Amino acid sequence: KPLQEPPGLLAFLLALRRNPLTTWTERHFSEPIISGSGALGRITVVNDPDVIRHIFVDNAANYRKDDLQLRVLAPGLGKGLLTAEGEEWKLQRRTIAPLFPPRVVSGFFPAMVESAERLVRRWQRRPEGREVDISLEMTRVTLDVLERTIFSKGVARDPDALGRAITRYFEGLGRIDPVDIFGLPDWVPRIGRWRARPAIRFFEELVNELIRDRKALLERGEAAPRDLLTLLLEAADPETGKGLSDLEVAANIVTFIGAGHETTANALSWAIYLISQDERVRARIEREVDEVLGAGAFEPQHVERLVYTRAVLDEAMRLYPPAPFLSRAAIADDRIGDLTIEAGTVVTIAPYVLHRHRTLWDEPDAFRPERFLPEEKAKIDKFAYLPFGAGPRVCIGATFALQEAVIVLATIVRAVRLDLKEGHKVTPLHRITLRPHEGLPMRLTYRRES
Ligand code: HEM
Fold this sequence. Notes:
CATH 1.10.630.10; 20 helices; alpha+beta; binds protoporphyrin IX containing FE
């Protein structure tokens, strides 16, 4: 529930560290633009789709990623695509873009189906009625998909070791540290970064070893799998023909995992939670999945036919956008109609607020996947719904994530039914991504053996 009044400075800073979601006020959900100056400098919160289009697309060159965001993300993600800026970003985007068009992503279909089916087979080995933490299970399955699509195989001897290291890595690095809020220099110790040190070492050594081995294989001219690692090592800038350095390849592997792991997992977790709360939606998605997939094999052409399943995911990402907060800093003064944005202002576009804005959505807090069925979806302003951002820095992995999420959700719905553990209170926690606080314990019952 949004606050009626803005909190005082100390309460604001504490809330920002604990759960930034709790700092939004009623005004944010009802006014198109809110500007102000506070502890974090000059900030303008934008919920007007035309102004958002201006910032993300028409005048995108005047907006860079702001310092706080980079201070939080860059120590983990290095100079990969998500955190690079200026010419460096442009070059990387041009070089990496050919890895993610639908034609290439559809090649990852078998890996995604294999991960999804392994997950439900693992569940089905356990007695019915058992409880699983869906939040944890979804981060496992999305990590499994990334391992198979980046490296073509499970990479660590202990299959959960990589998962544990990644969780610790991003948890340690992913919190907004007070030191970051006040913009202190890089050498000032950060608790999170210090705690994450062993995980950082484990993870980086593993990635470097995998790059070294694959390069050796390619240099020997031996057949290499056509996974994202090979594609990154072979990628070349279409303008200059130059490839990525080993450091850039490593940074982008970490970036794909960082940007694609929890986000997709959260989209799935929230979708499963919302389905469990609405019998009408549950009946309709089960009917679609049974009709499209039947008892047979999951085929690539099924993905496009699962329109209601896709609408459930779109609506889940409206209510609980996995990336709930985007921000930019204005480079020079900018005028948009009556609005002036001075140089240095941080412009905040918060999908969590935008997607529930009273002026943009009918019944904004209600879960109604029908909004996203093709005819209705066409009526939605593209800049009122931004789970993947927009403009030149739009998510490069959106097609990948949506294909994966449809495959995983349909595979789960076909096999099992999930109900929230009685008495468990679900609250969204904003920690870079938007996840269920204290997990999502759910009870499993079987619909069919896979
Ligand atoms: C960028 C969301 C999955 C890789 C972004 C941005 C958003 C986003 C909102 C833009 C950030 C900004 O403008 O500040 C999501 C969501 C996902 C998802 C909601 C899942 C449901 C993935 C996957 C990958 C990926 C699976 C890779 C395999 C990236 C990268 C960028 C990015 C590399 C930076 C692009 C650039 O700046 O040029 N994502 N993402 N994402 N995403 Fe995703």
